[in-house]
Amino acid sequence: KLKQDGFFINFQNHISLPIGKSVPMIITIKPSSGRYSGKQEIVHFTLYIEVNNGGVIPIYIKALLTVPYVTLDQKTLDFGDVHCGQCCIKCIVLKNCGAVEAEWNATLVGVKRRRRYKDSEEEIPFFIKRIGALFPPKTAELIEIGFIPTKERLYETLLKLEVKHNPEKMTVQLIGSGLEPRLFLDPLTVQFGAHVPYSGAVQR
């Protein structure tokens, strides 16, 4: 059963041990993903060593089997309306909730546009200031994400986050709208009416 759980014991049985001498016992842990599929699990068992004409020595073995995993404080990041050419930066909180170091990597993936945009060139106006890092357990850090629109339209992008040695993938939806500068004239028609030449200037 120990081998099925991923534990291997290398120890010489039935030996005569002189006074003051010792022999090594090597315990190897090699868990499989099929046997342990959760984020973390505590495994423990007791190993007994019998001494001829003596007692029984119990050895308690305990291990925490875990994978690095992180959490995000939000699933959607809305930048709202931003004027074209200007930059808006927002942050999401990334926290290492596991018991080991977590090495993460972030990428941006474009979302298919609506039909009216299908013939235009795809662009991703979002950017990440830091695309990856290795940080200790039980710590948190900010990921800064920027948005610089170039056209007046709605932009949607997915931020994909992957953690090394963890098959689970996380995504954050990024949304923002670009606004082009507009100039309004009021009124659109200016009428001067009848005017006698050389009688002076008339302003409206």
Automatic annotation (TrEMBL):
GO terms for biological process: axonemal central apparatus assembly; cilium movement. GO terms for cellular component: axoneme. InterPro entries: Hydin-like (IPR033305), Ig-like_fold (IPR013783). This is Arrestin C-terminal-like domain-containing protein. It comes from Cuerna arida.
